[in-house]
Write a structure and sequence with these properties.
Elements (H helix, E strand, L loop, with lengths): L8 E2 L12 E5 H7 L7 E3 L2 E8 L2 E5 L2 E4 L4 E5 L4 E6 L4 E7 L24 H4 E3 L2 H19 L4 H18 L10 H17 L6 H8 L3 H12 L3 H17 L6 H7 L5 H12 L3 H7 L1
Parallel strand pairs: 1-3
Antiparallel strand pairs: 2-9, 3-8, 4-7, 4-9, 5-6, 5-8, 7-10
Helix pairs in contact: 3-4, 5-7, 6-7
Protein name: AraC-like protein
InterPro entries: AraC-bd (IPR003313), Homeodomain-like_sf (IPR009057), HTH-like (IPR037923), HTH_AraC (IPR018060), RmlC-like_jellyroll (IPR014710), Tscrpt_reg_AraC-type_HTH (IPR020449)
Pfam families: AraC_binding (PF02311), HTH_18 (PF12833)
């Protein structure tokens, strides 16, 4: 775990620094007991998902609160901040796998981008499996548990995990469809990736539009058609999210956070943050 600069980062899929496994699967109730000391805001550098078969309480991901429901599944990507407040009656499965888990296995290195729930977008983050999908989903996870505990080949376990991801993408109403315009879909995904890479240094939609070889108006139209937000709103929301993540760490003062996000001064950052949240950074931090 790295606490040096910002938010605590869990940097081993097994949550055991002596075990550098690239995939970890566990019974949820056992996992929560074993890692009861993890109930504080933190982030991972690996993919993480949980399928609840029962339970109650709350799970907080990037400052959004979710009530736990049976057969609810949520996915988290590296960098997202979360914590939980479970009642103690939870059951299900938890899976962690490294970013490069499929890298040597799949010809297409960008294959995981087809799964909208592995892109870290709130609108695709969490959903409930419908009745017909539940048995098959849990059967696949049981197979992974059995294969892992039996020491079966890593490639076999990879095929099972990929089968699970494909099956969930079929079952999920949140699955991203290419729709009637694959070009727009590609542009939108490329814009989201650029924002993730550049939001600190590049805050103007026109700069992103130039990189995508389209006009700002065209970019806005594409963004609104997919999630009902303009390109500028998407950029601002990403900056605000990162600011909130940084505000968790009380070792960072507001000026340091403003500098990290490349605002010209503390005052401009405070005005930007308050306009988006109705709170100053200090007021937001007091609520944490």
């Amino acid at each position: 775990m790295n606490r040096k600069n910002t938010i605590p980062i869990i940097d081993s899929c097994s949550l055991d620094l002596n075990n550098k496994t690239t995939i970890h699967i566990d019974d949820l109730s056992d996992y929560v007991i074993k890692h009861s000391n993890m109930v504080f805001p933190h982030k991972h550098n690996f993919f993480h998902f949980v399928l609840f078969t029962k339970g109650s309480g709350d799970h907080i991901i990037d400052f959004n609160h979710y009530k736990i429901k049976p057969f609810q599944i949520y996915f988290m990507v590296p960098g997202q901040v979360h914590t939980w407040n479970f009642v103690g009656d939870e059951g299900g499965y938890v899976v962690n796998f490294s970013v490069d888990y499929f890298q040597s296995f799949l010809l297409r290195t960008d294959y995981l981008e087809r799964f909208s729930f592995l892109q870290g977008k709130i609108e695709h983050l969490i959903f409930e499996l419908e009745g017909p999908c539940r048995a098959q989903a849990t059967n696949i996870l049981d197979e992974i548990l059995s294969a892992k505990s039996s020491g079966l080949s890593e490639d076999y376990i990879r095929t099972l995990l990929l089968q699970f991801l494909l099956y969930v993408s079929i079952c999920s109403e949140k699955e991203q469809k290419d729709g009637s315009n694959p070009y727009n879909h590609k542009i939108f995904n490329s814009f989201q990736q650029l924002v993730e890479q550049q939001f600190k240094s590049t805050k103007l939609p026109s700069v992103y539009a130039d990189q995508l070889f389209i006009t700002p108006n065209h970019l806005n139209a594409i963004c609104k058609s997919y999630i009902g937000q303009s390109a500028g709103e998407i950029i601002r929301n990403r900056i605000v999210l990162e600011a909130k993540r940084l505000l968790i760490n009380r070792n960072l003062n507001i000026t340091e956070i403003a500098n990290e996000l490349q605002f010209k001064d503390n005052s401009y950052f405070t005005k930007f943050f308050k306009k988006s949240t109705d709170l100053t950074p200090e007021e937001f931090r007091k609520q944490l």
